[in-house]
Amino acid sequence: xxxxxxxxxxxxxxxxxxxxxxxxPAAAVCHSPDADKAAxxxxxxxxxxxxxxxxxxxAVQWETFEAxxxxxxxxxxxxxxxxxxxxxxISLYSVxxxxxxxxxxxxxxxSKRNLRLVVKNSGHDFLGRSATAESxxxxxxxxxxxxxxxxxxxxxxxxxxxxxxxxxxxxxxxLRELHTAVGARNRAVVAGAANTVGAAGGYVQGxxxxxxxxxxxxxxxxxxxxxxxxxxxxxxxxxKYQNSDLYWALRGGGGGTFGVVVNVTLRTFDETPVIFTTFxxxxxxxxxxxxxxxxxxxAAVPGLNAANGAGYYYITPNFPLEGNLSAxxxxxxLVFPNQxxxxxxxxxxxxxxxxxxxxxxxxxxxxxxxxxxxxxxLENILLRDDKDATxxxxxxxxxxxxxxxxxxxxxxxxxxxxxxxxxxxxxxTVFGHIVxxxxxxxxxxxxxxxVHPAWRKTAVHMFIEREWNATATLAEQDAVRKNLTNVxxxxxxxxxxxxxxxxxxxxxxxxxxxxxxxxxxxxxxRLYKIKQKWDPTGLFIVRRGVGSEDWxxxxxCRCT
Length: 560
Ligand SMILES: Cc1cc2nc3c(=O)[nH]c(=O)nc-3n(C[C@H](O)[C@H](O)[C@H](O)COP(=O)(O)OP(=O)(O)OC[C@H]3O[C@@H](n4cnc5c(N)ncnc54)[C@H](O)[C@@H]3O)c2cc1C
Ligand SMILES: *[C@@H]1O[C@H](CO)[C@@H](O)[C@H](O)[C@H]1NC(C)=O
Ligand SMILES: *[C@@H]1O[C@H](CO)[C@@H](O)[C@H](O)[C@H]1NC(C)=O
Ligand SMILES: *[C@@H]1O[C@H](CO)[C@@H](O)[C@H](O)[C@H]1NC(C)=O
Ligand SMILES: *[C@@H]1O[C@H](CO)[C@@H](O)[C@H](O)[C@H]1NC(C)=O
Ligand SMILES: *[C@@H]1O[C@H](CO)[C@@H](O)[C@H](O)[C@H]1NC(C)=O
Ligand SMILES: *[C@@H]1O[C@H](CO)[C@@H](O)[C@H](O)[C@H]1NC(C)=O
Ligand SMILES: *[C@@H]1O[C@H](CO)[C@@H](O)[C@H](O)[C@H]1NC(C)=O
Ligand SMILES: *[C@@H]1O[C@H](CO)[C@@H](O)[C@H](O)[C@H]1NC(C)=O
Description:
By secondary structure, the chain is of the alpha+beta class. Helices cover 29% and strands 21% of the residues. The protein has 18 helices and 20 strands.
């Protein structure tokens, strides 16, 4: 049995270490006894600003994980000022790391004293793995260095072992900052479609999907080297020549588990033009042809995907319009990298559109726009705003859907009839991400990494979102969690069966059951062994992470 010792030793921290500060939840200034009107005005204004949240040691992106329902502790800004503010899962102290040396010192400090340790980068994690109650936090957000090279040679490689053009980024670089740094040098990089999500933390370590995935693979497929502070406080390089077991695990094994990544090197690619297409398929709410249209769409996904088409779509069966009208909508967009001819892109959609056009009451809108480069496309479309919509309560449930299913005769209709059994309040949406296939599938032949092997068979990463009101009682919150975990995720799993495929660990249910199989499939035993080798005492324990089953839910006690 092993316990993490909590606050006890931490009171001395602020005196001994200049980069350490003690923490309260961001909204504490809006509640007694810490109420401060001016400070509360600022916090209120910034509440949904993801850039601000990323930088705050006293916040993560989702209110869900700032709260600690098991202890009935929360600090919602929505609550009345008289309601006391609980610390929840906000760390007690934070190390605002600026260098590898700071991280090493923090890791050694925590290890020596048996502290509960957590790494926060942007705080976007949907499983709450960057928020841990009664913990010492290492905040990597401020580490922003980037360096591009024409021919990256991994440490320990032979003389002719150059891997070609690459970028090395430090732990706190965001997806937007990465795209911008690389785009400015007329290069492209596989990275996701978000602004303030971190590139080197949970994103790449969890696999990392992107609208450029079908073109060039997962982000982690393109990670050439990691510099890592391990649980013993040492700084090590992990690549295919040295510490290759760690290198394998860091590409898909999940953030916060094997050490603290100080920087990562990612392959870059020649800039390329892209065709951007949008589609909007609608009916009046209640027209059964909507579901038939969804079936036809899903059956067409593998074909679009085969041409490197990638993107995002939104299924909203109860789409509120003005007045009392309601539509059913399927909207989305796909990009086709390294293509310049809009007519060719439309040809890919035409077989689908002719099937949709004969369905009564189904309306199809389609546009396509050529962009001269990925950079210009990002600036004008994907990353037009500079932040992401966060600052609310959110849980996800998800499943990877296979290409085989969608190509089989009844597969698409089986998927759609399952979707149809979900409850759709006005505006409630099922999200489809077409971010696999193409190079993601092909890389399965050449790249051995920890990502769930199901990724190589995936056509669509599909998820639902669930939420509750800040005023919801604990029982109401629990009802949403239970329904998600016991009813809705099992529905998604049932389409292909619980043993087939899996779920993307970065965008999944925070209460996922049988998470080892869901997130890693047959890779789990190897990951577990590597975890024991590099972190035998369990310094880095995250929710539903590798090895977390040996600990209680909060990672306090190795007593299960
Ligand atoms: C708006 C939004 C858009 C998204 N878009 C995409 C997308 O396009 N593609 C995609 O694949 N995913 C996407 N995601 C999911 C995203 O990959 C995860 O939320 C991921 O956990 C974010 O990593 P982070 O480091 O920024 O977040 P954090 O919450 O700070 O950290 C996540 C996990 O990684 C650990 N960690 C962070 N930094 C380090 C480090 N340096 N070393 C070791 N461990 C570390 C943390 O301890 C935690 O366990 C999106 C999420 C959101 C909210
Ligand atoms: C969001 O937060 C960032 C970082 O604190 C800040 O620079 C920016 O001005 C904020 N945006 C708005 C709209 O307040
Ligand atoms: C949780 O805390 C709130 C606010 O302090 C209180 O009103 C509520 O009764 C508590 N609920 C439980 C189940 O203890
Ligand atoms: C990566 O980390 C190592 C070790 O701290 C450092 O020497 C190197 O300069 C870093 N690279 C970048 C681009 O920051
Ligand atoms: C773009 O396509 C051309 C022709 O198929 C190919 O030669 C080139 O390598 C591609 N560019 C990139 C960056 O993949
Ligand atoms: C799709 O069509 C619906 C109904 O005509 C419309 O309300 C909606 O704005 C359209 N959405 C997009 C993204 O074009
Ligand atoms: C919407 O429905 C309500 C109740 O059925 C009705 O009173 C109202 O007039 C309707 N509004 C419109 C714009 O049709
Ligand atoms: C649980 O989820 C299903 C599917 O979305 C829904 O039909 C049902 O109403 C939900 N039950 C509860 C209690 O929320
Ligand atoms: C949240 O709760 C408040 C107060 O009970 C209520 O007015 C509001 O409609 C609720 N919002 C949602 C989305 O349920």
